[in-house]
Amino acid sequence: MNHPVVLAWLAHLYTSMGLVCALLAMRALAQDRPLDVFLWLAAAFVIDATDGVLARRVRVDLHTPHFSGRKLDDIIDYLNYTFVPVCFIWHQDLLSEALLPILGFTLIASAYGFCSDAAKTEDGYFTGFPSYWNVVAFYLYFLDLPELVAGAVIAVLALMTFWPVRYLYPTANHEARTVSIGGGVLWGLLCLVLVQQPAPPLTWIYLSLLYPAWYMGFSFWLHFTRPRGIVQ
User: Fold this and answer.
1) Which end of the chain, C or N, has fewer beta carbons within 10 A?
2) Integer-rounded Cα radius of gyration of the chain
3) DSSP secondary structure, the chain, as one string
């Protein structure tokens, strides 16, 4: 096996570490360590945010042509962005038994979203709500919303998976890239600080919501003001 092929397989192995993060997150959940769940999901996010650069650098498409890194990535993303967070919501009793069918619908809606050919567009967007259920679980846990409100939030976002609004894909789109990536890094660091505390101040929780609110609002603005197919 030549050197470039070895590097390509090492890149796939790096992507696969997201599976280990999912396993360790589920172990933390089973051991009633909810804050550690978020730490492992954060580690999975870092891998997901960096493996594409590595894969392109070592040309995995050229050196491992019969292996789909994108399919591997989608499987891992479904686990870390949907399945583990939904299990977290269930395990932490953030919804009552009567509302648990909403979580089943969420799993199905997200799976349909991942299987859509239009899930990621050529001009740097996600289509439909991009299954950020890890973020949803984070805020539902720390805000401790009434279960009917929490159920409504989950149901609406799951339905939005099928609404073909385009959401910003920060690493693939140049629109406000400094804010989208830089702000995302700052938001992530703030969230890491918050999960180090069993009961962080609500003020800081609400402050951390500024970036997700900007992301959603800016994505909607881009969707309705930018024509399709224009790469920014």
Assistant:
1) N
2) 18
3) --HHHHHHHHHHHHHHHHHHHHHHHHHHHHTT-HHHHHHHHHHHHHHHHHHHHHHHHTTHHHHSTTS-HHHHHHHHHHIIIIIHHHHHHHHTT-S-GGGTHHHHHHHHHHHHHHH-TTSB-TTSEEES----HHHHHHHHHHHT--HHHHHHHHHHHHHHTTS--EEE-TTT--TTHIIIIIHHHHHHHHHHHHTTSSS--HHHHHHHTHHHHHHHHHHHHHHHHS-TT---
pLDDT beneath 70: ranges in the chain: 1-2, 227-232
**pLDDT at residue number 230:** 45
**Are 142 and 221 within one domain?**
yes
Provide φ and ψ at 168, rounded to 5°. Answer: -55, 135
The residue among 68, 91, 114 that closes a domain is 91
Last residue of a domain, one of 59, 91, 123: 91
Backbone CA torsion sign across 41, 42, 47, 50: positive
- The single residue listed with the structure tokens 């949803």 is 136
In one-letter notation, the amino acid at residue 203 is: T
Same domain membership, residue 102 and residue 80 = no
Q: What is the pLDDT of residues 115-153, one digit of tens each?
A: 998 888 877 789 999 999 999 999 999 999 999 999 999
- Residue range(s) defining the domain that contains residue 182: 93-232
Q: Is the domain of 87 the same as that of 101?
A: no
Q: Which residues contact 47 (CB under 8 A, 6 or more apart)?
A: 14, 15, 17, 18, 21
β-pair partners for 228: none
